[in-house]
Amino acid sequence: MQNLLAEIHPTRWTFLWDALTTITMHLCAAALILIVGWWVARRAARSLNRLLTSQSRMDATLRPVISDTCLWSIRVVSIIGALSQLGIQTASIVAVLGAAGLAIGLALQGTMQNIAAGIMLLLLRPFKVGDYIDSGTGSVSGTVDEISLFTTRLTKSDGVCEYVPNSALWSNSIRNYNRNPTRRLDLEVEISVRDDVDGALAALRKLAAADPRALDKPAPQVMVARFDDSTVVLNIRVWANIDVFWDMRWDLARQVRQTLNNAQCGLPVRTRELHIVQNIGTDESAATHVPAAPRTSVQ
């Protein structure tokens, strides 16, 4: 009996040692695969980003998306390789990932909407990096810096950085101010109703046509927009390229007043006439019904 126990104990310890050694080797291999995979993914994404940046034909909108796709593709492969070292079969990994994806998709419906909206923005391309956009509600506006799968990064006109969920952009109308090469300038000015309207129109038309940034086709237009309280509102319409649009707007706004002064059109003062109608018959009727004051007699 003692001989049998002496033979069993060394065999048991040898089995435990071999099992522990095997598990340790698999754990070390899995950890090594994860570390190397994370390092390779980061280096590959950076190298791909530099390569795409050096390519002039590569759109800046797609560059971060391609880099992120490369990064996470290598990381997913490394995770699957690490799990396979632990004895987990690939079929079970796919089943677990599918179930986890379904659960996460149901829990993060808003995030999934942002991803779907980001994919549609990248495919349909209503705007690209460098365009100035605003939403239909007017609450979102700025220059596009980056489009990712979840958010779009904008720089507002005052220099503030704003991250907008893709679903907020995709669910509303988008105005792109850089898509068309030309843009129309509408500038309203006022003159008095007593001024020479035809002379003011001719002077403003000459001013708009003399600006070298104004396009000949369509030709500049000046018309009477409407009549307000003792004023005539004139509208100047000039087409220009988008790169000189704002400079021309500020210059025309500064020159309009002097041009109207030269045309003998002064600064209008809004006035209103107030007519007070007094009903005399009602006043007389009211006066006849006023009771007389009581009289007192002194004996």
From TrEMBL:
<keyword id="KW-0407">Ion channel</keyword>
<keyword id="KW-1003">Cell membrane</keyword>
<comment type="function">
    <text>Mechanosensitive channel that participates in the regulation of osmotic pressure changes within the cell, opening in response to stretch forces in the membrane lipid bilayer, without the need for other proteins. Contributes to normal resistance to hypoosmotic shock. Forms an ion channel of 1.0 nanosiemens conductance with a slight preference for anions.</text>
</comment>
<dbReference type="Pfam" id="PF21088">
    <property type="entry name" value="MS_channel_1st"/>
</dbReference>
<dbReference type="Pfam" id="PF21082">
    <property type="entry name" value="MS_channel_3rd"/>
</dbReference>
<keyword id="KW-0812">Transmembrane</keyword>
<dbReference type="Pfam" id="PF00924">
    <property type="entry name" value="MS_channel_2nd"/>
</dbReference>
<dbReference type="InterPro" id="IPR049142">
    <property type="entry name" value="MS_channel_1st"/>
</dbReference>
<dbReference type="InterPro" id="IPR023408">
    <property type="entry name" value="MscS_beta-dom_sf"/>
</dbReference>
<comment type="subunit">
    <text>Homoheptamer.</text>
</comment>
<feature type="domain" description="Mechanosensitive ion channel MscS">
    <location>
        <begin position="111"/>
        <end position="179"/>
    </location>
</feature>
<keyword id="KW-1133">Transmembrane helix</keyword>
<keyword id="KW-0813">Transport</keyword>
<dbReference type="InterPro" id="IPR045275">
    <property type="entry name" value="MscS_archaea/bacteria_type"/>
</dbReference>
<feature type="domain" description="Mechanosensitive ion channel MscS C-terminal">
    <location>
        <begin position="188"/>
        <end position="260"/>
    </location>
</feature>
<comment type="similarity">
    <text>Belongs to the MscS (TC 1.A.23) family.</text>
</comment>
<dbReference type="InterPro" id="IPR049278">
    <property type="entry name" value="MS_channel_C"/>
</dbReference>
<feature type="domain" description="Mechanosensitive ion channel transmembrane helices 2/3">
    <location>
        <begin position="76"/>
        <end position="109"/>
    </location>
</feature>
<dbReference type="InterPro" id="IPR006685">
    <property type="entry name" value="MscS_channel_2nd"/>
</dbReference>
<dbReference type="InterPro" id="IPR008910">
    <property type="entry name" value="MSC_TM_helix"/>
</dbReference>
<feature type="transmembrane region" description="Helical">
    <location>
        <begin position="88"/>
        <end position="108"/>
    </location>
</feature>
<keyword id="KW-0406">Ion transport</keyword>
<dbReference type="InterPro" id="IPR010920">
    <property type="entry name" value="LSM_dom_sf"/>
</dbReference>
<dbReference type="GO" id="GO:0005886">
    <property type="term" value="C:plasma membrane"/>
</dbReference>
<dbReference type="Pfam" id="PF05552">
    <property type="entry name" value="MS_channel_1st_1"/>
</dbReference>
<protein>
    <recommendedName>
        <fullName>Small-conductance mechanosensitive channel</fullName>
    </recommendedName>
</protein>
<keyword id="KW-0997">Cell inner membrane</keyword>
<keyword id="KW-0472">Membrane</keyword>
<feature type="transmembrane region" description="Helical">
    <location>
        <begin position="20"/>
        <end position="41"/>
    </location>
</feature>
<dbReference type="GO" id="GO:0008381">
    <property type="term" value="F:mechanosensitive monoatomic ion channel activity"/>
</dbReference>
<dbReference type="InterPro" id="IPR011066">
    <property type="entry name" value="MscS_channel_C_sf"/>
</dbReference>
<dbReference type="InterPro" id="IPR011014">
    <property type="entry name" value="MscS_channel_TM-2"/>
</dbReference>
